[in-house]
Amino acid sequence: MEKTAIITGIKRVGREVAKRLLEEGYNLSVVYLSSEEEAKEIERTAKELGRDTLLLKRDLSVYGSFSDIVESTHRHFGRVDAFVHLASPYYRTPIKSLTGKDLHNHLAPIAEAFLFIAKHAYEKMLLNEGNIKGRIVAFGDWAVECTPYRDYTAYFIAKGALHTAVKVLAKEFAPSVLVNCLALGPTLKAEGLSDEEWERILKNTPLRRKVSLKDVVNLVSFLLQAESITGEIVNVDSGRHIAGSGIRGIG
Q1: Over pLDDT 90: what percentage of the chain?
Q2: Is the N end or the C end of the chain the one with fewer CB atoms within 10 Å?
């Protein structure tokens, strides 16, 4: 039986996750805003593998887009089996200059979109057969639970809300739908981060290397097959949560 997954955030790590899902037999509903090139690449990969894709250009800062994403997906594929949420702006918002717009620009696509897309997806998942009717995986951040660093106020508040939503929905959606989160550490160098800062981060990480993309996609695959794991926030950070941020002056 063909399965369908909704995925948001396909520019970086999400592109690799999307490709793995296609390789594992999923049809994909690909939600993007500015990453049209990556969306087309995923579509080409899907065709090569004999899979189907639905490309949905949506602004996740707009509340009305959430139910439409799920309805469009269900109408096109006839089912929803998984939801993987990676969409996440990431830029500096120092507390002294923080605005309501900064908070909204992070909170809406990171946490609000996750909450309401998950809610609508859950309703469709309940139509599926079997005891476990669906699985949801969010992407959080190791520092939310451990050592949030300075100058990213809006980002961390939004990711904190996301982590809470994972735990809340895991309880609300049990026993039919499993909800988990990967809290990533240094996987790909962020825009605006200097090479010097990046190397310092990696040096101060216990394993002294960046997070393996292979580990990330393998864990997503595992959680989309798991039968008895829900409500978990899994650190995938090369041990960074036991070492601190590694960024001098803002850690």
Answers
A1: 76
A2: N
